[in-house]
Amino acid sequence: MSGEDEISETTGTPQRVGEKLRAAREAQGLTIEEIASSTRIPKRHLATIENGDYDGLPAPTYSAGFIKSWARRLGLDGQALSDQFRVEMGGLSVQPSQSLPYEPADPRRTPPAGLALLALLIAVVVGLGYLYWRGTAEQPREVAAAATDQAAPVTSAARPAAQPAPAGAAQPPAPTATTAQPTGPVVISATQDVWIKVSDSGKTLFMNILHPGDHFQVPADAVAPLMTTGRPGYTTVMVGQTPIPTLGDPDRIAKDVSLKPADLLARAVAPPPAVQPPANAVTPVENKAGT
Question: Which of 39, 213, 225, 271 is 20 to 30 Å from 177 at the Cα level?
Fold first, then answer.
């Protein structure tokens, strides 16, 4: 008897995905806490799946991913259980495949070869047009993101002319050559379920779903880490204690975002304030009039 035909001992009906996973987990002597720790799936979702109550689970795409990771952890067929779970979550029944008798098509009802070729050509043209539109739609976002990474130059007309200080006035301390930047590890977290991928020089460091409360810290020895996130609006990045602004359009995928601390801090840097003369400083005109 195959795994798909297993029968529940209590109800006499085919076992649901949750029952199979719970039986395999208990047979291996594992607890829900151990499964949650190794797969990074929230413990409440594991318990919900085992009990067969799918109302509290996220979208079917994310939940099917949970099933696949969980099954592989237990040495089961993740794809088969994931497919069965999609059927159970959608409330559909599995229909056995039946071979249909072959009937030759009526030549009078078969479209001519020229019409079929024309339909194929139209489909190819529409597909190429969509790809071209997609590429041109993403270019303005890339240009805008590159523009925000560069500090806007300050022209001489934007700053007021520095006024000479009167004799005997205290001179302000000279500015230092460099300004200390916030330091600390780069930490990625999420406010909702978000799929992210972090790589460094072609090597994948992390690729999974971040749930609220989870986080991933970029290794300190990473040379040129890059991140791709499916939902930038719900992805948060911190450099030490410094929050980084949103990494892109909240409704579009953000690809190959640099996770170097210097590049991230450049997004949070504001232009320096203009230098203003002291309120009690005497201008040269007023000094001349007084003498």
Answer: 225
In degrees to the nearest 10, what's the CA dihedral of 280, 281, 283, 287?
A: 80
Q: In sequence order, what DSSP letters do the residues of 209-233 get, joined into one string?
A: EEPTT-EEEPPTT-SSEEEEES-GG
Q: How far apart are CA 231 and CA 62, in angstroms?
A: 14
Token duo for residue 181: 């930047």
Give the dihedral of Cα atoms 11, 14, 18, 20; nearest 10 deg.
110
| Tokens linked to 246 | 């949103």
Token digits for 239? 């450099």
Pairing of strands 225-229, 254-258: antiparallel
**For residue 24, with 0-12 CB atoms within 10 Å meaning exposed, 13-18 middle and 19 or more buried, which class applies?**
middle
Query: 62-117 pLDDT, tens per residue?
Result: 888 988 898 888 889 989 988 988 888 875 434 444 444 444 555 556 667 888 88
Instruction: With beta carbons less than 8 A apart as the criterion, state whether 265 and 181 touch.
Output: yes
